[in-house]
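Thread: Newbie trying to understand structure tokens

Hi all, I'm a second-year student working on a class project, and my supervisor (Dr. K.) asked me to get a predicted structure for one chain before our next meeting. I've only ever worked with sequences, so writing a 3D structure as a token string is new to me. If someone could post the tokens and maybe explain what I'm looking at, I'd be very grateful. Here's the chain:
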Amino acid sequence: AGETDGAEARQHESSASQFPPKDQCRVLHVGCGNSELGELMLNEGFGDIVNIDYSEVVIKKMQEKYDDEFFADLQSIIERGEMEEILRNTLGLESRDDPQNDLNATKNAVPRMTFEAADITENLNYPDESFDFIVCKKTLDVILCSAGSVANARSMLTECFRLLNKDHGVMMIISSASPEDRAVFFENDAWSGVENIKLPRKKDDYQFDQRRGHERKKVDGYVYILYKQSWRTQAES
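---
Reply by user tm_fold:
Sure, no problem. This is what the structure looks like when written as tokens:
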């Protein structure tokens, strides 16, 4: 796998039209913890989200938080046509965004979100190509700080590669590590391309270091977009 540019980037852009609508997109959230990311994605119109985490305690708490009553309330909000206001006020969408598209998408199906205790470094109980989009928010960083880190990191990425749809599957990894430290883990599987994005700093991205008595920058953030798409294989055959 390598960074995308030029013709390859355009190929990925053109293949985006093949990606399923958000309400039909099946998402895997790896290492969800107690994050509200799944809820935010539901509010943006994604209709089928599977959250997994190694901790059974965390999963139980999330199942209790996002129970049948939560989804009944969410569906009621959608049916009353209040989702547009929520998308603008809660998520801070700008004027160029069209929340009506997300509202129309979520009207077509009852949103679904589940939580499962599972280890992404092992084979999950899902067939090949079960998901369209995989989100990994700092989970790779956590794995690389634990015992057996390198082998487990590669196992995680291989399992994610297996689970993604071969024609349009995309994985998004949010990390504190630079491309120099992460690129090696993207080379073990046949990703058709990888995009590296450095997240822009916010004005308040400084914190006071009490021990040293001065301000210091927070750790940079990076997003890695990994493509599992068959256009390259087809072009080479």
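A couple of things are worth pointing out once you decode it. Confidence is low (pLDDT under 50) at residues 1-7, 90-97, 231-237. The radius of gyration is 19 Å. Feel free to ask follow-ups in this thread.
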